[in-house]
Specification:
The chain is of the alpha/beta class. The strands form two sheets. Strands 3-2-1-4-5-6-7 form a seven-stranded parallel β-sheet, sandwiched between helices. The protein has 19 helices and 13 strands. The two termini are 36 Å apart. Helix 9 crosses helix 14. It has two domains: 225 residues, 3-Layer(aba) Sandwich (Rossmann fold); 173 residues, Rossmann fold (3-Layer(aba) Sandwich), CATH 3.40.50.2000.
Length: 420
């Protein structure tokens, strides 16, 4: 093992993602030399503070026609290739199986790690996009994922089981922990002493916040003073606001938009029940685990690994997909029973501390990095950082040819469509 030796880690990832920021931040704070290659440059303290090095790659043309896709692909390839030569990382790690993973695969660099997020392989059409993602995963030396149920789909894309590792994103349980409700925040939101339900999923079709809103009138029949706080942003916001208005529940629903991660603990500890109506998740959603760490009872949909984490009637409830009636029934039950909420919350807190701890999971990942780097340590140092003809199976011309083909296959290559 490399022991105390510090590594140079290079991430190909969306720098605006809080999950990427937290992952990179851990290793930077641990003394490793961390670089992020990204299309986007967030104005965020997690990126700007400390020893994180951000490298922004640019597209030359807007993504309108096939020609622009190819030109941009060639440009991005050249930029990333040059950066990797300059950085000389010990590990190249792509987050999400989309275009970042594809770019990483085309670099021919090893060790190459890909972290699958879930919907990046579960919710894609069975066409050329699937082929490019399968190509990227098969080129990786190691593939990590956040849920047990996603391992089989990864294998079906051509990855051998020996190359797959389960690494949870985890929750910082020192930051997300039970606390007294913030009277100031509740007053600011206009919910005061009302029993309150919170949703933190983005306002996209995948997260089916529509079902939560449709449950609101049913809950209000039983508990008229109930309030619903809906966080997040997305393409469905306007439609969801119109639905709230059409149902006549505007006074009971608060859209609060994007909540910065450092403010989330205060929001969660000020609520009574957490709900996730997602139609797809890899493992447990990080926002669900954060709510559990804060001692909240949770109601989640029956998908993925949710039943592994939420035992129905023990620490929360698992409901069918797209079922506002069942959701309303469980919300009413929990809002009426404070003692049950407290009992569920204590179980949830303990479970996350023991099984979904951010620091423990990142320590596991650190060991994985060390093993991967050591495995390749005996290779010629020049070969480890050179995008050479030998390492890319057919020379520079072959790389560009395959890259152009992959970018043609990768419909809607924009990272914004892949990683959000």
């Amino acid at each position: 093992m490399m022991g105390e030796k510090k590594m140079r880690l290079c991430y190909l990832a969306d720098a605006e993602s809080i999950h990427v920021q937290r992952w990179a931040r851990y290793f930077a704070d641990s003394g490793h030399d961390v670089h992020i290659i990204s299309y986007r440059s967030p104005n965020n303290y997690l990126i700007q503070s400390g020893s994180l090095n951000l490298h922004v790659i640019r597209r030359i043309l807007p993504h309108i026609k096939v020609v622009s896709i190819v030109v941009n692909g060639l440009s991005v390839f050249a930029q990333v290739r040059m950066l990797i030569r300059e950085i000389r990382p010990d590990i190249l790690h792509a987050h999400s199986a989309g275009d970042y993973a594809l770019i990483g695969a085309l670099m021919g660099f090893h060790p190459f790690v890909v972290t699958v997020w879930g919907s990046d392989i579960l919710k894609i059409p069975k066409n050329r996009t699937l082929r490019t993602r399968s190509y990227a995963l098969k080129k990786a030396d190691l593939v990590t994922c956040d849920g047990e149920h996603i391992m089989q789909p990864i294998e079906q894309m051509g990855v051998t089981p020996q190359k797959i590792r389960l690494i949870y994103f985890g929750v910082d349980t020192t930051k997300f922990s039970p606390a007294r409700k913030s009277e100031n925040l509740r007053a600011e939101l206009g919910i005061y002493d009302s029993p309150t339900v919170v949703s933190l999923r983005n306002l996209e079709p995948l997260y089916d916040v529509k079902s939560l809103i449709e449950s609101v009138p049913l809950v209000l029949k039983e508990i008229p003073e109930s309030q619903f706080v809906i966080a997040g942003r997305g393409s469905e916001e306007r439609r969801l606001r119109e639905l709230v208005k059409s149902l006549g529940v505007s006074k009971s629903v608060k859209f609060v938009g994007f909540i910065p991660n450092d403010q989330l603990p205060q929001y969660l500890t000020s609520m009574d029940v957490y709900v996730s109506t997602s139609l797809s998740d890899a493992g447990i959603a990080v926002s669900t685990a954060e709510a559990m760490a804060c001692g909240l009872p949770v109601i989640v949909t029956d998908f993925g690994d949710n039943r592994k984490w939420v035992k129905d009637g023990v620490n929360g409830f698992v409901i069918p997909l797209r079922d506002p009636d069942s959701l309303a029934e469980k919300i009413v039950y929990l809002l009426k029973k404070e003692n049950v909420r407290a009992r569920f919350g204590k179980i949830n807190r303990k479970m996350v501390e023991e099984k979904y701890n951010y620091h423990k999971e990142m320590k596991k990942m650190e060991s994985v990095y060390e093993e991967s780097a050591e495995m390749h340590a005996n290779e010629d140092a020049d070969n480890m950082i050179r995008i050479s003809s030998r390492r890319t199976e057919g020379g520079r011309r072959g790389v560009i040819s395959r890259m152009s083909q992959c970018f043609f296959w990768f419909e809607g290559i924009s990272h914004q469509n892949v990683l959000r």
